[in-house]
Each structure stands twice: as C-alpha cells, then as structure tokens.
Amino acid sequence: MTQQTAPFRYDHVGSFLRPQSLKEARSKFQNNEITYDQLKEVEDAAIIRLIEKQKDIGVLSITDGEFRRSWWHFDFLGALEGMEYYEKEQGLNFHNLETRKEGIRVVGKIDFGNHPFIEHFKFIKKHAGDSTVKFTIPSPNMLHARADLNAEIYPDLKDLIEDTIKAYQKAIQAFYDAGCRYLQLDDTSWASLFSDETRAKLVAEGKDPQQFMDTLQYVINESIKHKPSDMTITMHICRGNYKSTFHSSGGYNFAAEVIFGGLNVDGLFLEFDDERSGSFEPLKYVNRADLKIVLGLVTSKFGELEDKEEIKSRIQQAAKYVSLDQLCLSPQCGFSSTEDGNILEEENQWQKLTLIKEIAEEIWG
Q1: Which single residue of 39, 75, 89, 187 has CA 20 to 30 Å from 263?
Q2: Cα dihedral sign for 320, 1, 6, 354?
Q3: Domain assignment of residue 15, yes or no
C-alpha cells in the first residue's frame, strides 16, 4: 500500500451504528432517569470499544463513530455561539419518510467559542494512540442551508455567511491546536444542484442556482483558506442519509466544474453507490493532481455485501476520467448519520469495511 496519507486508499465517512447500551443510555438521559455524567460514562466506554474494533479490522482513519451526537450536523451547529437547538413542528422530508422534528435556529451573532466538540476530539486522540484520528463536522454551508434564520439579527444573508466563515476559521484552528490533522466537512447542500427538480425548488425559493453554487464554493474556500499546511481537510458530499433512505437524487454534472475544479479541499468523498449518483464522467473536471477522489461505491444503507469484482470494475471505469493514483474507496455515507442508524446489523458495517480494505489492497497493492 503505497499511499498512507489521508484520505486513505480504504477509508470511511465517519459514523457507525450505535450499540444498544448507548441507545438505552441516551433514552434514559432524555427521560431524566440518569445524569449527563452517567451518560458520558456509557459514551466513553462505547467509543473506546469502537476505537479498538476499528483498529482490529485495519481501519486507518479512527473516529468516535459520532457516538456523542444525535444528528450529524445539528449537534455541532447548535453549539456554536448565536445558535440554538430546538423542537420544530415538522421534520425534514426524505424519500417516503419524515425525520424527527428537531432543528436549529439563529438567536444571536454567530461565533466559535467554548465548543464541546474540541473535548470530544481530545478524547479520541487520547485513546487512539498512534493511529490517525479523523474528526467530522458539518460543512459551514449547512448553517445557512438548515438553520431557521433571524432577519432582525441578520437582515443581510451576506453578514451571516461572513460570520459563519470566521467561526469556521476559528474552529479549524482550534481543532488543529488540539492535535487534529484530518478534518472532514460533511455537506448535503450541494445536492440541491443535482437535479432539475431540486434546482426548480431553489428557483421557487427565490434563489438562482448558479449564484447558490458560487456561494457554496466561496464559503468552503474562505473557511479553509488559513488551514495549516500539515492539516488535511476533506469534504463529503451527500444526498441525504436517514434510516436507509435519501433526500435527493441526481448526478454531479451541473456543479461538476466547481466541485472538481474549484474547491480547495484535499479530498472529496463522493456517493457513487447507485444510479441516483449519475456517471463518473463529471470526474473529467478534476484539474489537480493532489486532489484525492474517494469513491463511495459500497452502500451504507443496507447490509447486503457488494460483489468484489463489480466494485473493482467500477473503480477502473472511474480511472478513465481521473488517475487511478488519485482514487480511494469508501462507503457512500456513514452507517448512522443520526443516532437512529441505517437498516443493517452492526456486523454488516464491519463486513463492508473489510471488503473495502481487501479491494483497495488488491488494486493499489
């Protein structure tokens, strides 16, 4: 295996299915049956076991499985200064499913202060030993994409965006100072550009798809422009993942030149597990030899194991558009983007990661 820098030849998006003990403890905490310290003890123990399991099967980027979170995005965003986590009247609409009725809203000026996720990272770092720790947070784009805004606090969206960028610049430096060298930004906002239907929704909301895309690009590049040179920042572009269902469909074509040729991240984790993701052709817009493309060819939504030879064939197909040396392999998304988890067994996720490792070793040596 010649490439041992993040993102790795065999990698993963970050979240894992929550063990039953953790689900029970979170439920008891929500019902005021146990204290936060008691919940934390269960979280700590579950994360330590998860770290060891990842090491046992050869995972190169160690995460905490997002075990301390209820959502992949709201927990981080809701803990920023100027933000609030709250109960909504309606959840998000996924394919034939509505999410839990929870969300975030702007209640003051956005900033990054004493954020609990820094301590969450330090805990993983402490117990991961010499292994590379990957920490995942929502993209800055998710704040203006998912938060309920406040026109009195931010009458001009541009001011909200600039404060969000400054907050993320502080966050990136804080994670770096805590020892983080591999940070991933998770982003579903790009999926609004992937189909005629989703672009029509943007227009109906009074947004121009091209301007929306330019804003997404600007926010990412500005947020990471001061990152230290020895820190890897990747981005996972997702079409939604909630209880094995999805939010949107469509290929990368409309936004391909910006995503593959205009973002200054070190790597891109991309969904390519089914026909909803389109073809590999948009990869032709990759214009940097140092940009790693992590192909999400193995689904995290269901337990059935993919055919090894078929996955290897698809990697070769992608290599027609971008150098094989720039490609990596992973699941298409996390196994549990929310604490609810996808519809598969815990053993299935380990089988899939083992398959990914085997394929990567056979292709790249």
Answers
A1: 75
A2: positive
A3: no
- Residue 244's pLDDT band, with cuts at 50, 70 and 90, is low
Q: What angle do CA 145, 11, 242 make, to 5 degrees?
A: 40
* Section 24-30 average pLDDT: 95
- Write the pLDDT tens digit of every residue in 249-263: 689 999 999 999 999
Amino acid at 108: G
Q: Which residues lie across from 86 on neighbouring strands?
A: 103
What distances in angstroms separate CA 232 from CA 44, 155, 306, one per listed residue? 26, 35, 29
**CATH no. for residue 311?**
3.20.20.210
How far is residue 52 from each of residues 48, 60, 127, 129, measured CA to CA in Å? Answer: 6, 12, 9, 10
In a domain? residue 202: yes
Residue with tokens 């926010």: 219
- Please report whether residue 14 resides in a domain: no
Count the Cβ atoms, other than its own, within 10 Å of residue 2: 7
What residue numbers bound the domain in which 132 lies?
20-364
- Between strands 102-111 and 81-87, the pairing is antiparallel
Q: 327 forms bridges with which residues in the sheet? A: 293
Q: Are strands 132-133 and 135-138 parallel, antiparallel or unpaired?
A: unpaired
* 3-state SS assignment for residue 15: coil
Instruction: Judge if the upstream peptide bond of residue 209 is cis by omega within 30 degrees of 0.
Output: no
How many residues are present in the chain? 365
Inside any domain, residue 11: no
| Residues 75, 88: Cα–Cα separation, whole Å | 15
- Mean pLDDT check: name the lowest of 164-168, 299-303, 309-313, 326-330: 299-303
Domains in the chain, number: 1
